Structure formats: structure tokens, C-alpha cells
User: What shape does this take?
Amino acid sequence: MIEFVLNGRGRRVRVPPMKRLLDVLREDCSLPGTKEGCGEGECGACSVLLDGRTVCSCLVPVVQVRGARVVTVEGLDRGGRPSALQRAFIDLGAAQCGICTPGMLVTAAELLRHARGRVPSEEEVREALAGNLCRCTGYQKIVDAVRAAARGASRDGAAGTSGARAPGRSRAGTARAKRSRTARTKRSRRRG
Amino acid sequence: MCLETHGAVCEWDGDQLTAWVTTQGVHQCAQQFAQSLGIPQSNVRVITQYMGGGFGSKFAPDVQGLICARLAKLANAPVKLMLDRKEEHLDTGNRPSAFAQIRAGVTNDGKLTAFDGRSWGTGGAGANANFPLPYLYQFPNRRRVHTDVYINAGQQRAMRAPGHPQGCFLTEILMDELADRVKIDPVEFRIKNAPPKAPNQMWVEYFQQGARQFGWEKRHPTGDPAPGPIKAGMGVSAHLWGGGGRGTQAHVDITSDGAVVVRCGTQDLGTGTRTLVTIVAAETLGLPTSAVKAEIGDTNYPFSPGSGGSTTAASVSPAIRITSIKALDALFARVAPVLGTAPGNLVAESGRIHVKGDPTKGLAWKDACKHLGTEPITVDGQWGEGLSSSGTSGVQFAEVTVDIETGVVRIKRILAMQDCGLIVDKLTAESQVYGGIIAAINFALFEDRLLDRVTGQMVNPNMEWYLLAGMSDIPTIDIVLNNMPERGVIGIGEPPTVSTASAIANAVRNATGATIRSLPLHPHKVLAALEQQKAGGT
Amino acid sequence: MKAFAYVNATSERDAVAALKFDGIALPLAGGQDLLARMKDYIDTPERVVNVKNALDRTAAPTSGGGWRIGASMKIVDLLEHADIGKMYPAIIAAATDIGTPQIRHQGTVGGNLNQRPRCWYFRNEEFVCYKKGGSRCFAVNGENQYHAIFGNDGPSHIVHPSSLAVPFVAYGATFRVIGSKGEREVAAAEYFTMPDDELLTHVMLPAPGNVKTGHYEVRYKASHDWPLAFTTVVLAMNGGIVQSGRVVLGAVAPVPWRSKPAEDALAGKPLNEATAAAAAEAAVSEAKPMSGNAYKVPIARTAVKRAILNAAGIKTV
Assistant: This one.
């Protein structure tokens, strides 16, 4: 028997210890929001929060979440209403086929919580979401949505609060709008 | 390759099969289930509410769908069978390879005279691998011999704009080499040899407008003279695509509570088809999108063709438009007597039905629908001429940097000039362009099926060594969509993915001065080309 | 996945006892590598011993002015450790480049050091190679573009997959291991060729002293990719002159590859571009690439040069 806290509620499952957390969530906890993309920790579609940090649930044996807090995409909404982040994804068209979206949302939610109301730079968003692959969107609208949600949240004073409005479709949809962007010939890193 | 693997859930109720399949064509899939299982097609229902990408690889039930159906029958229970990532790589097809030897002629003043090419490609075991060559530009004299090479490996499958990225690359890198031979700027050289301007051939305008917007005048001649190991360069490429569609049928219900349901057996690959259906119906009925329910992705709904060849928007939008107009006309006929006017005098806008030119003389949508009583509006309609056409054109510019000490290429900027006829929804149209470009960045730099030369086994059937661009690999992408409402709906899924890799390869050549005639632009190829250049040859 | 017995160890002693087993017993920490290997039938242990709770997951200063890092410490915690970051910047630079944020959140220091090879023949159940009891290395006549360019004289042509191993060797770390014969400390560089019948519990980092360090990684993708080559240099300085140094290359050999020729080329020289170029050239002088990976030689050379320039505070690219 393995006990953990799932989306804020205590949960017990009787499953083999090396069963993938991903399968436990989908099959034993009936939460199919978490998706499988590659099954090997490369694509991030199966990202969930484990004690506040994103992990690939396809690589985590369920025994290693004993006693931990797990949050899936189903745990991100605000009483059945989309969070500011989810709203921004919808408004800005940050999803196409949608299979990467749960992982993107969970990972971005972690970033926004760590940012504590500050709006992360484009580069920060790209670094934070480096482990989440998308085949459809070209990523730009995802970056835009995460930052729009952060702007909304910073106005509201707390990340993830519902009701924060993302910029409307017409403005954000202007692809010709100039974007200031730090060059990314190499990744920023601390050096000795 | 899709982020969601191929697969299905199958369930039998007696001799009735319901299959939830990740497919680009529910009706086609049902037909193939029926054929392969030897049951009447009327006994098969295929449902695709949402799917995790298709890109051309998801039409048939495939072996995994048929096994799933058979297992479900044997188990007398629903069965889910999704491929794992390795099976996905080995079983669900690849973009076929392309190889060519080309001789070409050009006059000193930059007019193409001749193209003489031999090409080869493999589509795996027994499948062909042809592609358009030469691509787009006007060679007054041309000869080309193509040979398909069969190898004992998985078969090719359609991959977003099948054939075009290959033919485009082989032609466009030739164009830059020829432009250098006659010492003419690559944009000017292309303008000299592009087909004349037409609604579906807007290249000359896009070259000119794009060059201005991209800052092409800052491009240096081949080989960045700047000191240091990081060299920058710009490249350009052009493409075409057909699109256009037909054959879709649709159904619209309007009930006395004001509810509108639109049913169409098309499917949404993630391209926004559901959004498109909703928008077209809502706009036609003068309602907000929230007042329209679009039901798609089910063979119980009216027929719509598979989603391939960028034909969905052009086949679905007219059908929804025509059927919605039909439904509205039926509603007008029922409401006109209440308003004491003829049906022809009515319009629907801003959630009201009123007399043309007099918004006060009318009813709110819901109040109007109350007059339907127990007999709802229920109409069928289908695609008709005049609302769609085909043929699109586009040009893309790329700027890259190349680290000549490591061979690593980084893409800085892409500018895409693209038309697709009438833009039904700007947001999802742009999304298609973004998506096409990232797919092509993967084609340019990363995606590569590597077969072990001794055993023929794929050594990288995973996402660890089959590389895919992540967030930091994607540059700033600027998109200029040319809205051409007079041409009707055409389609945009594939064209934006054609040019990107060629523009990138030409930018790499412009940066380094070294000629690389192969994709992906892996560091080993870049370093080898630089070595060769140092040795004095191409 | 094959059936196995599961043991949850709660102390180092328990863990050692549980791993001493007639059949195949494997330790489980973050589990990311082991789970993937078991799922793909690369490893079929009869017993899995969870050591995550048995091993230290913290870092603590040592009496000698260095640091001691527990094998169960998560990579993200190492990455965010302010003191270690200040004293051993190359470790942080290396940790930053490990996998994805998700991998770093779940992965442990011990797990990173003990990962099995990422060789695509080893990881594919259909190829029974040397490392899986077979009789040959498929990379030799096959696809070896990501394989070793150093240390190819032996039977193994993999590149060691650990990013942390390289700076640990460069900083002169020792590893504390425990086994049925008790505990001992071994030099980091020796650990990777030892028989694996002992359990790694701690990485012991000596006080770095008056050193300059540099780290540079070359990889193809900007987001999440295995390195093509990377280098850590730790140079003991006497004024502007390099007294002695360690130059360690990663992703180029079956073990973290310490380059004696590069270290010799640095000793007694001023830290400048000419020295960096000469040391980089020396580093690749002993490279023996395979049929398809000669391109990694200039890449390794560049990684060494830029790591040294990085230590010198000279902008590279």
C-alpha cells in the first residue's frame, strides 16, 4: 500500500512498487490528464509536481512518491474554473493538438510559483520549459501565454490566481509585433 | 513523428465495433476496419474527439488498430492499444529520403537555362519516394530521371507536405550556388527566375517585401568576414502548395431553446478544425461562438474526407457556411410571419434576428427560436463551389549563426510570408505557420532516422537520439499572412513547412562560405564542409 | 517488466546487507535510469533495493574546509546550494546542463554518477553487446558518431554518461563507498573502473585552494541534449602562472578522461589564449576516433580551449 497526497487529498493505492507514477495516476487514480509522449523522460508530456517540483511521471517508480505531495494538471484549476495560466493558454492559442499541454501547464505553474509575481523573461521561460517538447505550436505562443499569465498574476499579486486576464486575441495575435528577445547563441550559465 | 503515438481503444457490442482512434480520417478509418475485419461498414463507428498530432502519418487503423479490435473481440471487453515510442518509430512510417545529382545552366545575366537531374530516394520496402524536382523556378529546358530504391526497412508515409521539402531543398541550395556563380544577389536571382505574378504565385512580391522587412540589405556576400568563430548568415527560399478541398457534408440543428448544434464528420488534428466549424457557423448565424456547439470527429456525423494535403479548411468551411445559411433561411421562414415581414427581409446579427436596416424591428435569437415550438430546424448541406479555391505561395527568410569550431548551428530569426486565401481565424492560421516552421527546423537540424549499417536496425527509435527541437532551439519567428478573401478558403497546414530548411541551409552557406548539400545540418557535416572548404574544393 | 523482490532499506548497513544477494540485486535511488532499463528488459534484477532513504541526502562542510555531498542529494538541491556554488562553480555549471529540469528534480548525485551507458546498442534489447553478456561491441563496425574518441584501446567504446563525474575528478574528489568489507574512500578517477560491489554513499570534495576553474560544454541542441564533448579545468595558480592543473574531458571516453598532455602543456605557463590553444591541441593529440566520430576531435579541442579561456576570464564566443 502506497500513500501520498494527490491534488490536495490523501490517496492510497495498492500497486507494485516499480509501477510508473504515470500509470498509477491514469489507471489507478482515474486522472487521464497526464499524458505519455515518449515514456523515457525526454518529452515532458507526463510532467507532474512532486513536492512542488516537476518530474517526469513516466520515470518515477510510484514507491518513490510515498508520503509526497503530487499535483497533476487536474489540480491546477481554481474550483472548476481555469487558472490564469490555463486562461492565457486558451486566449493566446498556446495549444494545438494539446498532448503536450498538461505537461507545459504543470511546468509553467512551477515556474510562476517560483517567480513569486515577477514576470519571467522569455529566456527564463524557455529554460524552465526546456524539458517539454511540442510538435505543433512552434513554442512562441506558449512562451507568450506563460508571461501573459505572470503579468496578470503580478497585477493580482499572486501567481495562479483566477480572474487574471491575459491580453486579448487581437493584440497577442499580431505576429508582426516586434519582440525584444535576448540572443540565444549559447545558454546562460554560471561559469567558474 | 507525433507526440502522441498511434493507437486505439476498441469495444464491441455484439457485432458492432466502436473504435476510438487517433486518426486524421474517421470515415476512411471505418472503411478500412470494415474491409480488414470482413464486417459491414455500417457496423463500425470511429470516434476521434481529440488527437495528439498526425502530420500525415495517421489515416489507417494500421496493424495496431486491427489487433486492438481483434483482442477486444476475444476478450469481450474494451481494449486499449497504444504503441510505445520505439514501436512508433519502427512501425508508423517515415518521410522518404531524397538524393540527387544535378547539372544546371545559367546565363551571365542570371537567367536559368537548363536543368539536368538524376534523383534517387527510398520509401523503404516496396514503396516509392518521388518528389517534385526542379522545384518552383522556371528552367526552360529540363530533364530528370528518378529511381526508387527499395530497402528492407519500414515503409515511407506522408509527412507534412510530402515531397516538397526535399524538392525545395535540392533546388534552393542550387539556386544560391548558381547566384554566386553569376554574382547576383540571391533574392534578385530568384526574382529573375520566378514564375510570373498571379493570385496563387505571389513570390516576387514576397521576395521584395520580405527582403525589406528582414533587413536583407545587411546580408554580406557568401562567407562572413567577421573575426572569431561565430559566423552569421542569411538565406531565403520559396515554396508552393495546392490545398483546396471538397466533399464535406454537414448538419445543423436549431431548437426552440435557441441552441445550435453543428455536426460534421471531420476531425481536429490539433489544427483548430473545431474552432473553424464554430467560427463559420457562429458568424453565419450572427451569434457569439459560445452559442454554437460543434460536434465533429465521429462517423455518425455527415461525411467529411480525411484531413490531408491542407484540404480540411477548404472542404469544411464552405460546407458549414452553406448548411448554416440553409438553417438560417429555414429559421427566417418560421420567424418572418411573427415579425410581419417576408423571410428575405430578415438578417441575423449580434444575436438578433431583425428586419434589414431596422434593428429595432426584430427579436433576440432566443426569443425568435421560441417560435419553433416542438418542431426544430434540422437541415443537411454540403460543400459547394465558390467559397474555396486552391494554390498558395510563400517565401521564407532565415538568419543563423554557425560556430565554426564546433559546427553547431543556431537559428536566430525566421520571417515567413504566406498566403492561404481567406483567413478564417488569424490565431489558428498563424499557429499553423509557427508549427510548420518548427517542424521544418527539426528537418533542417535534427530529425534523422539512423539505421545500423550492419543489421539494418534503427539505432535511435526514441527521443533521446532522434533529436527534436526544444524551446531554446526555436528562434524569433515573424509571420506575415497575406489575407486574400476574394480567393475563398484554401488551407495552410503544409506550405509553411516547405521552405524553412532550405532558407536555413542557404543561411549556413552564407555564414560559413562552405557548401553543405545535405540535411540535417549536424555538426559533423558542417565541420566536414569547412574542412573541405579549407582544402579548396566544394 | 520481470517480477522482482522489493526491499526498502533505511540505513547504509541495511542497504549493504540487502544488496548482498545470490541473484541480481540493484539499488534504486531516483529510479529514473533503473525504471527505464527494467521496462526495456536491459536489466532484470531479482531484487530492487531502495537506498534513497538509506543514504545521506544533504551536503555538509568537512573539517578540512571542503564539502561532503550525500549520494541521495537531489541534483536540483546541489544546483541551488549557495556555498557549493561559490566554492566549486564548475560543479554547478555541469549540473545545470544535466538532462531537463524534470530530470534534475528527481535525479540524485549518486544516480548521476552510477548511470549505465547511454549507448544506443546497450539500450536496445535487440543488441546483446559486451556489456550485456554478448561477445562484441556493435559500435565498432556500426553507428558510432556519439561514441568514444579516447580510451578506445579496450573493449568498451561508450562515453561515460555522468556530467558530475567530470568536475568531481577535476576538483580531486574522493568517493566514500561501503561494502561487505566495511567503508573506504577511493579517488574519484578510480571509482569508474572498480567492480561495482560497493555502494557509493558520499562525494568528498577537498578545499579547492587558490584555483581558477572553467567549464565548457558543446552540445548540438540548445534545449536538453547530451553533450558532444565537455571539459572542466581546475588550475592551481601562482600569480598569473599555472602551477599545476587538472583537465578532465567528458562525453569522449568510457570514463571521465583526464588529459595528462593538456595538463603538462599548462604547467608553468601564463594563462592566456596561446596557452589555451596549445593545451587544447595537446589534449586531442592522443585521440583515436572510431569510423564515424572524428568530427568530435575538433569539438573536444574546442571544449578544452574554451574551458581554459573561461578559467582565465577571457570571453570565448
User: Anything to note?
Assistant: The mean pLDDT of chain C is 96. The radius of gyration of chain C is 19 Å.
